[in-house]
Design brief:
Blueprint: H1 3-11, H2 13-21, H3 25-31, H4 36-46, H5 51-72
Length: 73
C-alpha cells in the first residue's frame, strides 16, 4: 500500500475504525490506491454519517421533542 494512503487512513479515525470492521478493503487499496474515495463512502454509510442519515436523526429528535411537549401539556 502506498505511504500516502497509509497516512490518509491513520489521520482519519473513521477510516481506521472501518478497516478494523471490514478488512477486505486492505486488498482493494493495495491493488488500487485511488479506491480511498470508495472506502470513505463505505465508511460513512456504515457509521451512518451520510447526509440522509443526518437528516433522519434530526427529524427523529424533533419528533421526540414534540412528543415530550405533548406529554407536558
Amino acid at each position: 500500500m502506498e505511504i500516502k494512503t497509509i497516512h490518509l487512513i491513520k489521520d482519519n479515525p473513521i477510516l481506521h475504525s472501518y478497516l478494523k470492521v471490514d478488512s477486505s478493503w486492505y486488498k482493494v487499496l493495495n491493488r488500487n490506491p485511488q479506491a480511498v474515495v470508495d472506502l470513505e463512502k463505505a465508511a460513512k454509510k456504515y457509521f451512518k454519517l451520510t447526509f440522509p442519515d443526518t437528516i433522519q436523526r434530526i427529524v427523529g429528535n424533533i419528533e421526540m421533542l414534540s412528543s415530550f411537549i405533548d406529554v407536558l401539556k
